[in-house]
Structures are given as structure tokens and as C-alpha cells.
């Protein structure tokens, strides 16, 4: 009897409509919350186009947040079902040399039916041991310890600490950073407009769990804090050279940690965590004042010392970034460290529909503004690509190919160009049917749209048409010929739609085949911008 095998060729879906639904998990890979699934989107190095190559099951409700550890060896997903899941690469590569193994779930935190998890963070403190932080809608930030055990006992997961997210509200964002000597920094930002920074140390005896002390409360934001992210300037004692001092970050030193916080007050604040001097000399204070005046910054000595074991660290405001016209939902450091010239780079996403890339030259300034349409909720960037997701789950991908032929232009320093990324329905799919050619499928969903996906010549499966935007949730659809289909919605009316010659021309260019009967179709159709196709 002949065996039958199958391969995954195409995944369609929208990103979850939350600010923390995407994070980088590899050099060319991003993990996305996609409804109850986690999708792994790979970005092709040659074309710069992105497509979902793997889906991870486990959550029973919408995945709200995804966050990877600094070394990308694992990531955590949190969902509305009250649980968070730890995902790690399998050691099995499927027989292909150099190809990483599939992601698999190695731990479940929390219990089904608990408060929705809205933010997560993870840090690998030593091989086989990780610290995970979750924040839920019940206003509690929980610290967990995950220890891998290759024996019969299996992996061990235990809660080690609970932290209150202020007297009112809850933490909307959390971030972890590992610094020298097993010390961890934890930052939270929430609905009270305060950024809280904790210092923790791994216990040398007993379980080896991390315990965080009292937080330092950083005021300044005038609205909800929507995102926080750490950036290690350099690690102490790991052999890395101190990064070259330049411009607005000339005073950053090896061992310092930069913290970015985004807020609905339309501003991003950059805080600097540095070693607290036991006693500053008069000359040190004079030098600091001179540097601040040279950068046109106000003089400030409002550094707050973190409670915790030595070495003691202090936190102070370093910069305020203001250029967005709407709520700033996301602020993330570029995964490769920075932008042109190796400087520090930051990427932000806002309700004004734009994603901005910031670099620290003489002062922090935006060097690129991308988008400008639908409100953006989150964005991540690495090397020559940037991925953002919008309010209704749409993915926006840009690539900076560079123009090596022009003087002064190096790869990754040219104009940003849009690239195709995965797309799909933002609500449950109700029906799917094949086109007679076998090269396309039609789907309808509870997001009140009908979409056509086709196998294109150069970029794989892509959404090529959205012929119907309805006023009711869609329920069923079927092709009634090569150029027409019938659909039905919840208002119990069936409607027939036909293609146009304009679509037929686009179909031939994308798919490489002529649409049968295209010459008999009407030339085109128009629809008001805010109208429904019904």
C-alpha cells in the first residue's frame, strides 16, 4: 500500500491585535500571536519577504503577548486563557544539516481560567535555568523559575514571587535584563503612568531562585506606560570591548543598561541604569554638568539607587523622544544593537500609523518614518528589516536593501522599501473553497471579509484580492465558475460576485496563467473608500 505524506505549504492568519504580540526569535524569524496559535514568520534573506512557516498549538484563547530571551534560545507566550507557555528549540533537526529544530513547549505557567496574561518576559540565568515574569489583568506581576531536568522528573516550574503593580491598575509591560554577577533587572510599566525598576539576585543556596527587592519608581510619563525594553550597553567581564562613545550616548559606559519606556502621552523616555558611585568628586559633578550643557539637556541629579546586593546601581532619566502624533504603543531596541555606524538604535510604533527608527547622533532623532495609514500597535527590527503589526492584525514589512553602487552607500543603508508579508483574517474562518485552476483559494470569515489567496510566481502564496467587505459576518462561499463566486452572510442573503478584466490582468501577472473567460468580463468596478461591497 502506497504511503501518503504531506507538507505545510501555506499559512494564512492575522497577528493578534495587541501591542506585544510579536518578538524576534532568530536572525530571520519572528514569533507572532495569531489567535490561539503562535506563528513563526521567516523573512527570506534574498527577497526580504516574510511568510509563516510554522504554527504552535497549546493555548485555548487569544495569544496576547510573545517575548524572547536575549539569546533567543527560548521565548514565552501569554494568552487570555490565563496561562503562559515556554517554547524552546528541539534538538532534532529533521535530518537537514544546519537547520534548527522545531519549537516545542517545555513548560506551562499558570492555570486555565485565571486572569488574562497581558505581558511576559524571560531571561536565561544559566544553562538549563530561566526566569520568567508574567503580568495579568488581576494587577499582579508574577516571577517564575523554570529548570530543565533531563531525568525522569522532567522540567520543574515554580512561582517564586508576586509583585504588586502599584496601588491601582495593572502592569501593561514587563522586561528583564541580566547583568554582571547573576544580577537581574526587572522593569514594569502600567496604567498608573509609573515605570518601576527592580534589582534581583540569584540565591546561592536552596533552589537558586531570583528574589527582587523594593522597586525604584520612575515618574515622568503623563499617561499609561505601554512598553518597556532593556538594552545592555556591554556586559561586564565577558570579553566584549566597550562600545565606542558617540553623540547623545557618549556618557554610556560598559556595564550600563539603557531602558526605553513608551507611553500614551506620545513620548518615549530613555533611562540609564549605571553603577552608583559611592561618593562623586566635585570634578566628576562639574564634568557631568558640562556634558549636559553641551547636549542642551537640563541639569539633573535625580538618580535613584536600586535596592539590592552590590554592585549598587542607580537609574536616571537620559532622554525624552517626542515626534509621534498619537499614543506610542511600542518601543524596542533594534536587535542588532543599532543603526548606521554601529550606534544605538530604537524603533517605535504609534497610533498615528507610523513606525519610527531613532538613532543617537548629536541628539536622539528619528532617521526614518515608515507607514502612515492604519494605527500600529507594535514593531521589531533587526539588521536591514523592520516588521510592524496594526490594529486589525495586518503585518507591515520593510527592508533596507542599500545601494552599494553609490558613494557612501553600504548594504543596509539605502531607502526603506515595503515587502510582502503574511496576511489573513482577523476573526474565525467560516468557509474555504478551491478555485478550479488549483492555484487559488477563496475564504470567508467572521471579520466580514472574503479573501482570495493564490500561489504567485515569485513570492509563494499571497493574498491577491479582497473582493468583499461586508456588513455582516460571513458564513459560506463557493466558486460558480472560473470568474465568479457566491457568498452568504449572517443576514441570510446569498450574493454572486464576478471578476473584472482589471483583476484578470493582475492575476496573469502574479500567477502566470490567463484567467479563463477574462476577455468577456467588464473592464472594472469602483467603490467609495468607506463603502461596503455587500
UniProtKB/TrEMBL annotation:
Bias kind Low complexity: ranges: 398-414
InterPro entries assigned to the protein according to its UniProt record, in alphabetical order: Elp2, WD40/YVTN_repeat-like_dom_sf, WD40_repeat_dom_sf, WD40_rpt
Gene3D superfamilies associated with the record: YVTN repeat-like/Quinoprotein amine dehydrogenase
GO biological process: tRNA wobble uridine modification
Annotated protein name in UniProt: Elongator complex protein 2
Nucleus recorded as keyword: yes
WD repeat feature ranges: 56-88
GO CC annotation: cytoplasm; elongator holoenzyme complex; nucleus
Gene this protein is translated from: ELP2_2
Keyword Transferase attributed: no
SUPFAM superfamilies in the cross-refs: WD40 repeat-like
PANTHER family reported for this sequence: ELONGATOR COMPLEX PROTEIN 2
Region (Disordered): 398-421
Localization terms from the record: Cytoplasm; Nucleus
Chief location category: cytoplasm
Organism of this sequence: Coemansia erecta
Family indicated by similarity: Belongs to the WD repeat ELP2 family.
Keywords: Cytoplasm, Nucleus, Repeat, tRNA processing, WD repeat
Pathway the protein contributes to: tRNA modification; 5-methoxycarbonylmethyl-2-thiouridine-tRNA biosynthesis
Amino acid at each position: 500500500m502506497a504511503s501518503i505524506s504531506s507538507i505545510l505549504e501555506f499559512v494564512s492568519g492575522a497577528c493578534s491585535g495587541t501591542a506585544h504580540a510579536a518578538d524576534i526569535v532568530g536572525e530571520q524569524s519572528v514569533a507572532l500571536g495569531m489567535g490561539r496559535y503562535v506563528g513563526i514568520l521567516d523573512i527570506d534573506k534574498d527577497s526580504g519577504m516574510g511568510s509563516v512557516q510554522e504554527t504552535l498549538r497549546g493555548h485555548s484563547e487569544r495569544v496576547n503577548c510573545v517575548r524572547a530571551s536575549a539569546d533567543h534560545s527560548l521565548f514565552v507566550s501569554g494568552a487570555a486563557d490565563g496561562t503562559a507557555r515556554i517554547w524552546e528549540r528541539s534538538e532534532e533537526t529533521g535530518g537537514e544539516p544546519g537547520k534548527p529544530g522545531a519549537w516545542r513547549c517545555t513548560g506551562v505557567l499558570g492555570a486555565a481560567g485565571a486572569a488574562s496574561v497581558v505581558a511576559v518576559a524571560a531571561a536565561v540565568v544559566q544553562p538549563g535555568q530561566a526566569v520568567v515574569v508574567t503580568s495579568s489583568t488581576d494587577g499582579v506581576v508574577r516571577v517564575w523559575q523554570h529548570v530543565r531536568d533531563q531525568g525522569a522528573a522532567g522540567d520543574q516550574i515554580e512561582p517564586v514571587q508576586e509583585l504588586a503593580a502599584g496601588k491601582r491598575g495593572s502592569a501593561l509591560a514587563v522586561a528583564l535584563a541580566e547583568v554582571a554577577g547573576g544580577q537581574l533587572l526587572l522593569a514594569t510599566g502600567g496604567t498608573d503612568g509609573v515605570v518601576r525598576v527592580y534589582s534581583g539576585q540569584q540565591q546561592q543556596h536552596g533552589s537558586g531562585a531570583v528574589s527582587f527587592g523594593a522597586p525604584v519608581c520612575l515618574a515622568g510619563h503623563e499617561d499609561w506606560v505601554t512598553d518597556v525594553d532593556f538594552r545592555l550597553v556591554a556586559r561586564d567581564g565577558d570579553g566584549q570591548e566597550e562600545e565606542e562613545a558617540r553623540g547623545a550616548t557618549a556618557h554610556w559606559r560598559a556595564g550600563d543598561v539603557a531602558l526605553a519606556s513608551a507611553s500614551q502621552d506620545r513620548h518615549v523616555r530613555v533611562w540609564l541604569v549605571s553603577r552608583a558611585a559611592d561618593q562623586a568628586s566635585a570634578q566628576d559633578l562639574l564634568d557631568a554638568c558640562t556634558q549636559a550643557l553641551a547636549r542642551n539637556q537640563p541639569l539633573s541629579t535625580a538618580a535613584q539607587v536600586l535596592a539590592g546586593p552590590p554592585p549598587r546601581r542607580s537609574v536616571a532619566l537620559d532622554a525624552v523622544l517626542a515626534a509621534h502624533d498619537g499614543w506610542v504603543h511600542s518601543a524596542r531596541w533594534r536587535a542588532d544593537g543599532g543603526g548606521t555606524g554601529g550606534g544605538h538604535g530604537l524603533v517605535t510604533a504609534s497610533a498615528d500609523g507610523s513606525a519610527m527608527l531613532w538613532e543617537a547622533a548629536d541628539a536622539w532623532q528619528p532617521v526614518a518614518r515608515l507607514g502612515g495609514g492604519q494605527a500600529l500597535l507594535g514593531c521589531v527590527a533587526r539588521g536591514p528589516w523592520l516588521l510592524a503589526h496594526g490594529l486589525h492584525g495586518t503585518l507591515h514589512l520593510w527592508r533596507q536593501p542599500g545601494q552599494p553602487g553609490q558613494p557612501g552607500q553600504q548594504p543596509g543603508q539605502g531607502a526603506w522599501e515595503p515587502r510582502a508579508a503574511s496576511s489573513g483574517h482577523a476573526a474565525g474562518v467560516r468557509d474555504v473553497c478551491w478555485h478550479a485552476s488549483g492555484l487559488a483559494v477563496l475564504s470567508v470569515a467572521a471579520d466580514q471579509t472574503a479573501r482570495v489567496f493564490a500561489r504567485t510566481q515569485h513570492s509563494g502564496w499571497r493574498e491577491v484580492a479582497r473582493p468583499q467587505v461586508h456588513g455582516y459576518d460571513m458564513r459560506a462561499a463557493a466558486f460558480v465558475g472560473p470568474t465568479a463566486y457566491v457568498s452568504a452572510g449572517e443576514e441570510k442573503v446569498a450574493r454572486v460576485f464576478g471578476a473584472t478584466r482589471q483583476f484578470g490582468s493582475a492575476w496573469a501577472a502574479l500567477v502566470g496563467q490567463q484567467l479563463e473567460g477574462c476577455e468577456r468580463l467588464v473592464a472594472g468596478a469602483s467603490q467609495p473608500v468607506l463603502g461596503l461591497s455587500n
